[in-house]
Amino acid sequence: MNLKEFFKNDRFAAMIGAELVEVSEGYAKARMLVTAEHLNATGYCQGGALFTLADLAFAAAVNSHLQVTVAISSNMTYVSNVKGGWVYAEAREIVNHRKIPYCEVRVSSEDGKLLAILNSSAYRMDRTIEAL
Amino acid sequence: MNLKEFFKNDRFAAMIGAELVEVSEGYAKARMLVTAEHLNATGYCQGGALFTLADLAFAAAVNSHLQVTVAISSNMTYVSNVKGGWVYAEAREIVNHRKIPYCEVRVSSEDGKLLAILNSSAYRMDRTIEAL
Amino acid sequence: MNLKEFFKNDRFAAMIGAELVEVSEGYAKARMLVTAEHLNATGYCQGGALFTLADLAFAAAVNSHLQVTVAISSNMTYVSNVKGGWVYAEAREIVNHRKIPYCEVRVSSEDGKLLAILNSSAYRMDRTIEAL
Amino acid sequence: MNLKEFFKNDRFAAMIGAELVEVSEGYAKARMLVTAEHLNATGYCQGGALFTLADLAFAAAVNSHLQVTVAISSNMTYVSNVKGGWVYAEAREIVNHRKIPYCEVRVSSEDGKLLAILNSSAYRMDRTIEAL
Questions:
Q1: ipTM exceeding cut-off 0.85 for this assembly
Q2: Chains with 3 or more CB pairs closer than 8 angstroms to B?
Q3: Strand partners, D87
Q4: Is the pTM of this model over 0.95?
Q5: What is the CA radius of gyration of chain C?
Q6: How many domains does chain A divide into?
Q7: What is the rounded average pLDDT of the residues B28-49?
């Protein structure tokens, strides 16, 4: 099972231009090119766009063991703004628990500035990704 | 200043089909029609789509006093899934603090099922919406 | 099973003076008299004291169905300070899910001022309170 | 100003046996010996005790620049249980922002097992620690 391929079925992530660039055990990296379409009413990249990018990386990292795992609660902290260019989200599964894993995601701009941090608790279901 | 008009400048919310339907002091309601474009790789509405809808309602509620207010930290809890139909987000500013307000948002399906809860702490800047 | 009696075994809550005053299905109320012993280095009630009070109410509310339920992730938002007097925590289980319930707790001073809000996701274990 | 000395005025932390062992710019470490007095009704260290320990380390780290800084919102995630022995909390200020810093705290047992993670957004006030 190629997780990068599997997550191409995430149509919402695709619509907003978020895509996985790397997935390994307990780790994933995603990217998105921020354009005028991603901006909010004050002219900065919308929080929901950054959240979706972070959430895609989170989903790939916690599903990297091929057991279906869904978010329970995700805490998004905003650090800085961005108006354009590439943004990256790196997800690390800090706790690989058999039922309730925990994952941290850092979102950064292309010049390495920290934009946001997503901390998510998740729940492993009794199903494999292959069985979906 | 008509906040519903102002938030039409949120191009990201517009792209994903999220729109405000009501704004008053400390309150806002937004809606979005979930279509195939909003689904994730497992066939349910993507968490980022629900987050963005909730965030739009939050932004309108905390900016309803016309002082620019931005999210500091937003905690999203997922309750149920949805595969289509209208979803609604209702935001209530529980704490109208002069610097650090706090807002709760409930996201529900068109048949009234609770889908997610967003709790956000925000920061009021020294600027009015009109001055943007 | 009397939950108020059961939670008297919470020695930490007892040490700091937090006690349950009411428990029903999906609901609990706890109280604590803030004294000099609860203050932090700046002279206000320590966040950990308010958290513990809120956590006691949360634990009683989510365990009110007599299935052992533990916190996964708890988000504490501080609203105002207090230097003394009674403080109360009221917990409401908003989502009574068979595996992952969700509970909101409001902490208030004796004159009704909101002090803090605790939002917690929890996990139900395959064990009853009676079996402990 | 010696921050370790200053935080000895945190009477609540002292009552529960939490103490700072190290403080430097943007960093702090605290410890607590878990005894029978720290246990909850199910026989494990109470979440509020671990939270208070983590909060003490957080407070020292974000106040290490000697500007009074208070928590806005703190997200506590529970990873494992402990029944006794030393527990440690290490706080790192990830974002040293002039108004809204962000700090991560890891709580571990004496054998290095991760017990909990606290992520906190904070607010810097227009006051120095010396002026308190």
A1: yes
A2: A, C, D
A3: D32, D109
A4: yes
A5: 14
A6: 1
A7: 97
